[in-house]
Every structure is written in C-alpha cells, then in structure tokens.
Design a protein that fits this description.
four-stranded mixed beta sheet, 20 strands, alpha/beta, Spore Coat Polysaccharide Biosynthesis Protein SpsA, Chain A, 2 domains, about 30% strand
C-alpha cells in the first residue's frame, strides 16, 4: 500500500525556510526543534539550497565554526519537484534518496510547498509570561486610516493586527495582555469587550501621550518576572522561547529583537577626499544594518529607569540603562521574519503577505 506524504503549505512553510546568512548554530537549533527535518535556503522566496541534520553533524565532527553562515555547508543542488510534475512521485523520490522532505517549486524556482514522508513535530516551549501591547499612539503615519480607526484595530486579512500579535504569543501560552491605550481608547476597549473575542486583556489608560515608554511606568510593581513588550503594528515570526532563553542567559535588563536589513543604493556612489579627488567608486553598493523591530523582552527593574508622568521613548530609557552599565542586548532575526505595518506602504505589504500565507 502506498501511503500519502504529508504536505506543508505557506503558513507553516516559514518554519522550514532560512536565509543564506543564518548561522550554522541557529540552523542546528531549528533542525533540532523540528525533529531533524531538512531546512531550505531561500533568497526572496527562490529556492537556493537545502540543509540537513547530517550536513550540520558532519561539519561539527571537523570542529567547524558554528557562527559561520549556513551557506558554508548547504547543498546547492537540492532535489525538488516542479508544480507541474506528478506529486505522487514524491514518496518514492524521498525514499530512493534517503530524504524526509521534498520542496515543490514553480518554473522560476519559487518554493510553494514542501512534501514530507512524515511531518516533523514542532516543539513549542510554553512560557506563561505577560505581554504588554503599546497601543496608545495616534498612528499618524497611517493616516487617513487612523483618522477613523485606531491603529490596533486596522484589519490585516480577516482580523485586526492586534489579534495577529496575540495569537502568536498564545502559541507559547503567553495569554495575559496588558494593553496601554490612549488615542480612540473607547473604540479599542469596546471592540475587545463587546465582540466575544476570547483573549485575556487588561486595559491600562494613559492620561496623556507619553511616547513609546512613558506608559510602561503605569505597570510598575505589577510584574515580578520577565515580560514581553510589543508595538501594536508588528508581527515577529520567531521562536519566542529561544528569545527568552537568550535574554536570560545573558542577564539583560532588556533585549531588543532586531532584524537584519539589507539596502541596495540604486546608484553608483563616489567617495572623495578633502581635495574632491575620487578615492573609490562603488556600483550600487549594498549595506547591512540592524533595525529595532519593536519587540522587547524586559525585566521589571527596567521600569525604574522611566520617570513618572513623562513623555519618553523606549530608546531613551535604553540609553539610560547603558549609561549606568546595565546589560542591554539584541536578539537578531532575519528581515523576512519581521512584518511591520507602521506606514502605508508597509501595511499594503503586510496585507499581501498575510493573504499569501492564508492560502
């Protein structure tokens, strides 16, 4: 009897996709969390390579540097099927080649599906931690939408952005949310209180606009342990339990989740000296930097650094902690693991991506 393979489609597929710059250590962690499953290296959705548990173990046997990019060990000639091939072949192909996962790609090598002999079990560590959602701002960059709806209630797909955020945390048993509200607060409160939406939310009302950190002071004394803080306009697709582990291991007072961004300048650039003589030419140079996603892991004593009844941004509070030699760290994710709707163009991109993921 020929047993069917198990299929993973776009929403789950992100769990098995990494970039070429992912470290071998991080790839190893992901493989272990997914019961030894293969991972697939993509560039803008285009399949480049595969990485197996065996690739990683063989590299470890020669004492390879685990901080090297995974491109160092990836197989750039992966086995795959096209969408127009007979998918029924997938089981025999996997059995003949001794692999557990087979990518299905379009004619231009865009990864659209993964077939498994046996779908890996993804282990999610429950955290049982509170989450603060910063939802008090006016959302001026999203006007005219936010002249009618507050930013936390803007729909992305069939539900609000805030519900996407809460659902992600609830996967890790983070089920209590303290939402700091101000602008159009009654609309926000009535939406969540009157629509039988099953989320555990407490509303903390900010009497004035106190920036991205001032409202956090209202929570001082409420938490005895570590808690998450998130902006109300971002979704981060990452292992939240690993973020917590990393934060605790380093003893940080706050950890900023940062995305690795790459920007290409679409022009040739020229560098000159003081005499305006050219010393270098670069054609469409590419720059890499880290950007703050708006997701944080925070210790209760961080709130001690926030003044009462004051407009202050969280970056200013972080600077105060650093000035007093408190440990401040980052947890780095890849750019495609961060969805941000803070501006109109970004909102449209998030809408498009959510629609693709739901199909």
């Amino acid at each position: 009897m020929l047993f069917p393979t198990e299929v993973v489609r776009p929403m789950e597929m992100k769990q098995y996709i990494i970039s070429e710059n992912t470290t071998i250590r991080e790839a190893m962690r992901i493989v272990d969390a997914r019961s030894g499953s293969n991972l697939f290296v993509c560039r803008d959705g285009i399949l480049q390579a595969s990485v197996s548990d065996g690739d990683i173990r063989r590299y470890m046997l020669i004492n390879g540097d685990l901080e090297m990019p995974v491109s160092h060990i990836a197989n750039y000639k992966p086995i795959y099927l096209y969408t127009y091939d007979d998918i029924k072949q997938s089981r025999s192909i996997m059995e003949n080649h001794g692999i557990n996962a087979l990518p299905i790609v379009t004619a231009d090598m865009r990864l659209v599906q993964i077939e498994f002999l046996k779908k890996p079990v993804v282990h999610v560590q429950p955290l049982h931690m509170p989450v603060v959602i910063m939802a008090g701002g006016k959302g001026t960059r999203l006007q005219p939408y936010t002249q009618i709806l507050p930013k936390p209630l803007i729909p992305v797909g069939n539900v609000t952005i805030t519900e996407h955020i809460m659902t992600k945390f609830e996967e890790y048993d983070c089920r209590h949310f303290d939402m700091i509200v101000n602008y159009k607060k009654n609309l926000i409160k009535s939406y969540f209180q009157d629509n039988e939406i099953a989320h555990d939310i407490s509303f903390v009302e900010e009497p004035e606009f106190w920036g991205t950190a001032g409202g956090l002071k209202l929570l001082q004394g409420k938490y005895q342990g570590t808690f998450f803080v998130t902006n109300c306009d971002i979704v981060v697709e990452a292992d939240y339990a690993d973020i917590y582990r990393y934060h605790r291991e380093r003893g940080n007072i706050i950890s900023l989740v940062c995305a690795r961004k790459r920007t290409v300048i679409p022009y040739g650039t020229v560098e000159v000296n003081e005499q305006n003589e050219i010393i270098s030419l670069k054609e469409k140079p590419e720059y890499e930097f880290l950007t703050n996603t708006g997701l944080y892991l925070v210790e209760p004593e961080f709130l001690d650094y926030i003044p009462e009844n004051t407009f202050i941004h969280i970056t200013d509070v972080v600077q105060k902690c650093m000035a007093e030699h408190r440990k401040v760290g980052t947890y780095i994710i890849e750019e495609n693991a961060w969805m941000d709707m803070g501006q109109l163009e970004a909102l449209e991109q998030m809408q498009t991506r959510m629609r693709k993921d739901s199909h």
